[in-house]
Amino acid sequence: MADENFDEVEETTVETFDVNYSCLRCGTIVSNTELSRLPEIKCICGFRVFTKVRPPVVKTVKAI
Ligand SMILES: [Zn+2]
Known about the structure:
The chain is mainly beta. The chain is built from one helix and three strands. It has a three-stranded antiparallel sheet with strand order 2-1-3. A hairpin with a 5-residue loop joins strand 1 and strand 2. The longest helix has 6 residues, at about 30-35. It is elongated, with a radius of gyration of 19 Å. The relative contact order is 0.22. It binds zinc ion (ZN). Zinc ion binds near residues 23, 26 and 47.
């Protein structure tokens, strides 16, 4: 029989997740670290609406 001690296996990965945002008007990609440095959330073009750019999920999906 196999031991099932999975309780302490959980690893804490403290990693700064760099989320990128894309300006809805000009498409400029800004990271959240850059945005947090700005006095206000605003693109270089002056637009203030951003969409979150998701990092590509590395996942192998078999097409059936
Ligand atoms: Zn812009």
